[in-house]
Amino acid sequence: MSQVRPYGGTRIIDLTRELGLYAARLFADLGAEVIRIEPPQGGPDRPVPAATGGSEQATATGVQFAFLNLNKKSIVIDRKTPSGRAVFEDLVASAQIVICEPGPDEPDLVAELIAVPGHRVVTVVSYFGTDGPYSGFTGSDLVVQALGGIAYLSGEPGRTPLALPARQSLFVTSLYTAAATAIALWDSERSGGSHVLDISAQECIAHSLQNAVQVYDLENRILARGGEGIRDATESAFTCKDGYVFLAAPLALSASWSGLLKWMEEEGFDGLARLREPDWADRPTRAQAPMRAEFRALFERFIADKTKAELGAEALRRKIVMAPVSRIADLHTDPQLVFRRYFQKVAMPGLGREVSFPGAPYRLSEPVWRIDRGAPALGEHDEDILGRASSKIAHR
After folding, report:
1. What ranges in the chain are assigned the alpha helix state H?
2. With contact defined as beta carbons under 8 Å apart, do 337 and 343 qualify?
3. pTM, whole model, 2 decimals?
């Protein structure tokens, strides 16, 4: 008996460009039929083939495209033609969900989707929402992280703000998009009504600022880089033999601090006497810049001949809050990820080989998540979805 998947039988039209790409894939991973509708030249996220002027950057983009579009289907429709628009409307009418990210040349797209008869969820994703003073602005990952507030909270106290890496606004927005769309779909199926959702990437970022909003609401205080304000000298990343480890051994974590001192004692570390002096028992003093610099020098000298793996093992044994800072290359051999078979091999025809991609972002009791197919070639499913005759009409 085949496993029933949460979104089996659900058809989703994917008209995303950037911010909502991963949202559509999250549904596809759970059994939804997600159909990318692309223009004849392909969607804006589709990489340029090497034969037509691509480069190493195109190859890198190709891997990103493959990850964000796993499990999806692709059809080509020229929506600028009357026949293409007719086929497009028929497909929208057959879907329970449409996730769209209108481009600058599609000012009427949302109105067109709403006008199609039937009940469905139409989710509109953009950088700043469909109304308000910023709605017409061009956005980017960096701009949204800054205006959403996460860059202000990222980095070292007293230094410049930092953007989170790897286009985090794309993934944060997609997670909120998927959650809101799932809730709206549940209500639509229950009530037989329709929903139009307006997702702002800036609002998604602003809603994910740890406890910054609550702190302002309850204490009338604005959080800044460095968290709650007092940052212990031990709370940072430190250089070891083959990279970095992150340590947290403040006085509040007494087992971590005492375990660290005991370890230094067992190894006869000559800097231990300094760390046992009275000023290291005062929490505010430990947060001052001179103390942070002094502890860094002492601790990095203590771990200079130790690898990340050795330090991680000792930290577990001694109940010290410390862990390796992994590089991307380290993740493929991480014992925990290897044991859980986290990485999945997916064929990449354009590269002529398989590529390892991250597996499920969650672990459920039933095996309902899976990779059914790689990212689609342009128009790969025209005949399957449109039929031979309709496919020819849609391309005219």
Report:
1. 21-28, 56-68, 82-93, 109-115, 141-148, 168-191, 201-206, 212-219, 254-266, 272-275, 283-286, 289-302, 308-318, 328-331, 335-339, 382-386, 388-395
2. yes
3. 0.87
CATH topology of domain 11-210+338-395: Rossmann fold (3.40.50)
> How many whole angstroms separate alpha carbon 176 and alpha carbon 169?
11
Domain definitions of the chain by residue range: 11-210+338-395, 236-327
Region at 268 (left for phi over 0; alpha for psi -120 to 50; beta for the rest)? left
pLDDT at 118 (0 to 100): 95
For residue 64, the SS3 value is helix
Q: What CATH class is the domain 236-327?
A: alpha beta
The percentage of the chain sitting over the pLDDT mark of 90, rounded to a whole number, equals 77
d(CA 355, CA 256): 40
The answer on pLDDT for 345 being more than 70 is yes
pLDDT band at 84 (very low <50, low <70, confident <90, very high): very high
CA distance 12 to 34: 5
Closest CA to 127 of 166, 170, 179: 170
